[in-house]
Amino acid sequence: MMATAMAATGAERAVLEEEFRWLLHSEVHAVLKQLQDILKEASLRFTLPGSGTESPAKQENFILGSCGEVGVQCILDQPAVSQQWEEQPMAGRGASGRSRLTLTCCSTDQVKGVLTLQGDALSQADVNLKMPRNNQLLHLAFREDKQWKLQQIQDARNHVSQAIYLLAHRDESYQFKTGAEVLKLMDAVMLQLTRARNRLTTPATLTLPEIAASGLTRMFAPTLPSDLLVNVYINLNKLCLTVYQLHALQPNSTKNFRPAGGAVLHSPGAMFEWGSQRLEVSHVHKVECVIPWLNDALVYFTVSLQLCQQLKDKH
C-alpha cells in the first residue's frame, strides 16, 4: 500500500511539474506579449508623428471649472496618433516628434491665453493677465528661441521605455527556469511602471524661492516682472499653469514673517525671502486642462501593473 501511495505521489508531482513548466513557458510568455503590446500603446502617447507624416487634425473642446480665480475653456488640437510604433532610445527625444497638442485657454476673468505642448516641451506660451489692483493687462509670452521641457513627461516616457526594454529581452525563445526568475522580472517591470505613474501623479513640492530661481522665469520676453512668479507642472492627466502675484513686505510691517515651506500650490498670504526682500503672495491664478493622451497612459500603467501582479500571484 505504501508503494502504491508513493507511486501516486510521484505521479501527482510529475503532473504538477509539467503544469509548472507549461506555466513558465506558455502562460508567462503570453502575459509578457500582452504587456509589451499595452506598453507600446502607452509609449505612443508620449511620442509625436515622425517628420514627413501628416495626420488630419482632430479638435476637441473641453470646459474647465474654476481653479482659484480662473474659469476657462480649453480647445485641444491633436493629430491622430499613428499606430506604427518605434522604440525610442532612453536618452533624448530623437530628431522628430509625434504629436502636437495646443491648449487654448480663453476667459473673461483674470487670465486668458494659449499654451502649446509639443511632445514633452512647452514650445509656445501667449498669456494675458489682468492685474487685480489696477486692471492693467499684462502680456506674457515665451521667447521664440526657447522651449520649456516638462521633466515629468520626459521621465515617465523613459521609465516606459525601460520597462519595454526589460520585456523585449525575454522573448518567446527565452526559457524561464524558475518561478523566482519570473518574479524578479515582474518586480523590475513594476518598479519602472510605478515610477512612470508617480512622475505624473506626484508633482514636485517647491518652495517659492525655488520657483523664483527656476529657469521658467527666464523663458519670457519681455522679462517677467519682479512681482510675478509662474509655475507649470503635470498633475495626473492635467497640465497646470499657476501665476503668483506678489507684493513686498515693508521693513516696518507688523506681520509675523514666516517663510512658507514646499507646496505644489501656494496660497495667498504665503511669504518668502528673495534677495534682500521679504515678499508675500497676494493673488494666485491657476488654470488646468485635461490632456487625453496622459489619461490614456495612466490607464495603460494601471492595467499593466495589474497584469504583472496577477502573474506574480501565480508563482
From TrEMBL:
InterPro entries: RAVE2/Rogdi. It comes from the Eukaryota. It is found in: Cytoplasmic vesicle, Secretory vesicle, Synaptic vesicle. One of its GO terms (cellular component) is synaptic vesicle. Its main location: cytoplasm. Transmembrane segments: none annotated. Coiled coil: none annotated. Belongs to the rogdi family. This is Protein rogdi homolog. It comes from Heterocephalus glaber (Naked mole rat).
